[in-house]
Amino acid sequence: QVQLVESGGGLVQAGGSLRLSCAASGRTGRTYAMGWFRQAPGKDRVFVASIRWSDNYTYYASSIQGRFTVSRDNTKNTVYLQMNSLKPEDTAVYYCAVDLEGGGYDYWGQGTQVTVSS
Fold first, then answer.
1. How far apart are the first and last CA of the chain?
2. What are the C-alpha distances in Å from 100 to residues 34, 52, 64, 107, 110?
3. The pLDDT value given to residue 75
4. What pLDDT score does 74 carry?
5. pLDDT digits over 43-75, tens only?
6. If pLDDT is split at 50, 70 and 90, which confidence band does 118 have?
7. Cα gap 39→97, rounded to integer Å
8. What is the DSSP letter of 40?
9. Alpha-carbon distance 84 to 104, whole Å?
10. What is the rounded CA–CA span in Å between residue 20 and residue 55?
11. Residue 117, strand partner residues
């Protein structure tokens, strides 16, 4: 079992920044990658960014490319999502997830709300 706890969400004005954190605990030894997803009201959950454990390769959705940065702190078993130049359309609940063996995301956090006002 893996437990994921997100934090760092909140209300910010357009053009502002937030940094989300996702702390992982439990059986994380087989982690292949961790990712961030978001779900806006009335819409499906969509991919935002991911980071691969073996080489820190990162991958981003085109909608946030150049504005968001995913990173990790090995010592804290934590993944971050730095979000800059936020737009109202970035408003969503943000979730982190862990992919243990490269076959898809196995565990999910409870989500953290990000609201961007215009």
1. 40
2. 8, 11, 25, 9, 18
3. 83
4. 80
5. 999 999 999 999 999 999 999 999 999 999 988
6. very high
7. 13
8. -
9. 27
10. 21
11. 13
Angstrom distance (rounded) from CA 7 to CA 78: 11
DSSP state of 88: G
- Half-sphere CA count of 1, side-chain side, radius 13 A: 2
Quote the CA–CA distance of 110 and 7 in Å, as a whole number.
10
Q: Which two tokens stand for residue 51?
A: 């980071």
CB 21 within 8 A of CB 71: no
CB 52 within 8 A of CB 110: no
Residues 75 and 55: their CA atoms lie apart, in Å, by 16
